[in-house]
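Lab meeting minutes (informal)
Scribe: AK
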Amino acid sequence: MDRMLKAARSSGSLNLSNRSLREVPDEVYQILDAVREDEKWWEAAEMQKLILAHNNIEVLKEDVKNLSMLSVLNISHNRLSHLPAAIGDLPMLKSLDVSFNSILCIPEEIGSATALVKLDYSNNLLKDLPNSLGSCLDLSELKASNNSITRLPEDLVNCSKLMKLDMEGNKLAAIPENLLSSWTILSELNASKNLLTSIPESIGTLSRLIRLDFHQNRISSIPSSIMGCCSLKEFYMGNNMLSSLPAEIGALSLLGTLDLHSNQLKEYPVEACKLRLSVLDLSNNALSGLPPQIGTMTTLRKLLLTGNPLRTLRSSLVSGPTPTLLKYLRTRLPDAEGPESATSPMKEDQIAIATREALSSKELSLGGLALTAIPSAVWESGEILKVDLSRNSIQEIPNELSLCTSLESLNGKLSDECIDYLKVGMLISITFEQCCMDSISQADASVLDTHWVLILTNNKIKEWPGAVIQSLSNLSCLKLNNNLLQQIPSDGFRDLSKLKILDLSGNAASFKEHPPLSSLQQLQELYLRRMQLHEVPLDIMSLEQLRILDLGQNSLQTIPEGLLETSLQALRLDGNPLRSIRRAILDRGTKVVLKYLKDKIPEQ
């Protein structure tokens, strides 16, 4: 103990957790009075951090006031039944954790610790919180879960910096309207497992709320003001008494998880099909059917429906994979609302709403609408800086995107394979992923060391995007691998003088007649895998900057001698029926292969 106290006088921090202590040693309260002769008392540091967690301490003495510079006090997981009034004599205290004790009440003096930022009373025996907490104006995080608290003190209205409130597992019957409206920067609210019967209308003032948990209460309705929670990503309402949902819930454009299990819902509103959810739990409700528009919620990874009296869906669909169910529901859509329709009436409404919102935010959000074409709103919406077209089925990028001179970011990420970056006007970033594009007129770009990158991997592009390439004079990376490219024009590479990376792998039809490569004098990496090549294009030897050449999985039987005189650092030849190189040589890497071939030159 002496050694630890000496170290604490040097560092200002003392950790006595997990030591089976029954009481706090007196030396801790008088730590600076116990300076030994071999210590320099003038160099001793005031105690700033004291950890006493996971012991058997029953009393925290009033002497704690001696630690006037204490900023962190953790005495959780002990056997405290009360806190001393002296807790209010710690003017520098910012974090207090007394969770997992048997505390019956918190002294009003806590309000004198006005520097408090984090306060954790969880898992005690509290019946109320002191009004004086309202004096802790810097309070940002308040946890009081798993107690028996029946009300929130009115003075908490003064805690305008509150960001996280956890009241799970108490006996709250209501949350005052004025409290919610005063916590304007609240990001997390957990009031689950209480006795709440309603959600305050003022919930809509919480525009920064990200996570909202009201599960296991007695709530019968969600107010329409919920649409004001525009940052909400997780909403938990399971185990309540909901019989319907407000149409306004469809305005929560960032919502990813919606838990509505074990309620009394008889229908799921069509308006809520606008949501871009990943998880939707509707299990154990009173649903007899589903709107087919749920099938357009292509972002859904998990849709839970068990425990409903569904009459229009086979049990195998209900309990089967979510994508299969969504696909089935899409077949039930009216023709005007099917995924083949780029802008159905419902989608037009959603686009109109998003366009109005973009007037102030400068961000146009059109993700997850099952669009097959980019709507004109993108280039007709004025000074838009960012457009989100993710999770759609867009097949073609129109030339009109060049009108978006103020656009900085266009996100069209649809799944896992990336199509990164194309400059359009002031565009910094466009992302499309496996969007089944069969042609491109203006696509994707980003500035990487003042160069641009165009990646169109894994699509269905047939025609060489010459017009786009011609407009990208600084293009440094072009990836068109795994498409359906037809023959590349003889002048296809003419405008790519600054290109450093070219990947055409998997486009065998594009190289039947080898287009000239000699204009690619800055090329450093060339990928021509699975191109059905029977011979190495001879003009590759003229590419003096070439460092990586991938000719794997072709039909090459020989390697030209001139290739060995280049500056290649990596040569990949796997999967070719080469007669002059044994497999054991190939497996040993580029240096061994090149040395082997060079050694063979005199014999040839």
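Next up, CB showed the second protein from the same session:
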Amino acid sequence: MTSLGFCALLLLMISGLRQVSCSRQTFTNTALLDAHGKYHLRWRYDERTIVFEAEVETTGYIGFGLSPSGSMAHSDMMIGGVENGKPYVQDFYTGTNREVHLDHRQDYHLEYAIENNTHTILCFSRDLNTCDMDDKIITESTVRVIWAYHSDDFKNVHNYHGLNRGRKSLRLLNPQHHQDALESFPFFEIKNPNITIPFKDTTYYCQIFMLPELKRKHHIIRIEPLIQKGHENLIHHILLYQCDSNLNESEVGMGHECYHPNMPDSFLTCESVFFAWAIGGQSFSYPDHVGLSIGTSNDPLYVMMEVHYDNPTFQEGLTDSSGLRLFYTSELRQFDAGVLETGVWVSLYHIIPPGVSEYLSEGHCTKECLQEVLDHEMPLGINVFAVLLHSHLAGRSLRTRHFRNGKELQLLAYDDEFDFNFQEFQYLKEERRVLSGDHLITECKYNTIDRKNVTWGGLSTRDEMCLSYLLYYPRIDLSRCESLPDQIQQLTFIGVKEIYSPVTAWPFIIKSPKKYRNLTFTDAMDTFKWSKKKGLAFNKFVLQQPINVRCSKHNQEEWPQVGQDCCPLSFILFYVRMTCEQGLTTV
């Protein structure tokens, strides 16, 4: 008998035992699946196999599944438990109508099980790829785990679990990083002071904060989200921007709606992303050799926190005090971390037609930009160690591609099952060196099959974005490396011949042909009679058009050879909320 088999037998013989030292200590990943602390999942994996341990507050059966959408339909499922001292595990799958079928191939395997008077612990394993069409292949993409449990043991498919069920998105194969014990480390918090959230669909709220005054350099080593209880679905993202160190201290604590005509001018100096967190994300710990530098003359003294509130049901009377907790240390690490925003420049010029099941957008961080910056700043290149892929509700699949000398390298990051409600940094299995002359492409695939109007690039979660946030070291003077298709060329697809010039309104007005005269370009795009065929043709057309490139320093200036400004600052200030290509990119 193997040691694992002996351990399983021993566990079944010992009444009431719940700590399993011979196996449980080897699990490297853990997640709480329900809101009441009754369903704990632990797992570990290697190149071929994944092993799960479910600890659930029940003496009945435990259900576990992998779903393409988070629902029961087309799911790969396991049902198991301990009945009269005998453990059982069975492999099931579901069809389109959620009917449950016993899988003819039993690919979930029992490792051990134990049950006491209140809990059941079930350990089971399977291959990452079972070569069974009724099983889901487990990859580095997001996995929608579905779970259930019942007070009775499993009898048949009609033994329904009732309300004891749910779903949780996880990245099962995301490498885990060592996390220091934080009790001995100082921290500071950046939180909104119980602000009132406006009665509307989308609100971006910004406030300026002063970082701790330190006499010498320190490193931030971990950042935790502080989401007010009950607001988990209200807070779509939190961004920290580095501000001009010459700000007046009287502006600290100043809060206002972002991207608003009346927002303080000082907000415009806060342009370089310092850290990013998005919905569903957990705490982030920097690798042992990397930290986020604070306390020197080159580091930010002031930061602006931007919180995106997503309130599609127009709830009234909401107040919020969410924010971030940042742990830091005086024991310096070897390298300073940086954040680079790449992808599609956030703008109304990012156009996605309705009625298309798969529309591809590309954002380029060009070889010209990376060559100019890295030759000047870091000739040996930078090392990427984590990536946050970001899109909105229409996003289905995102990836960051990496090219060198015309040849594609291994994907930098990908998520082929993107979940809008679960966005967090992916640690790379191995750090990736980005060299002078490399070319990065952020690709996003969208599904607009259920939409009647054009989807625009913009701030609302009903608008779209296509971004990759790269965490890297050593830090260089590059904040954004992005691109955007040429707008005039895009308009020629629907037959636009001329716009009014000079441009005095946003969105700008079309002059000809007659059927579009005096319409904004957004209205003209929505007036066009889109079909699936025309949407796909537009996609092919856009991908062949010239692009405008953004190659921005931390102080908002562009690198001279490749950076392109879009419009004068006065125009930006007046139409800032319309998200002209004004450089106020947000997630």
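CB comment: Confidence is low (pLDDT under 50) at residues 1-23, 565-587.
No objections, moving on.
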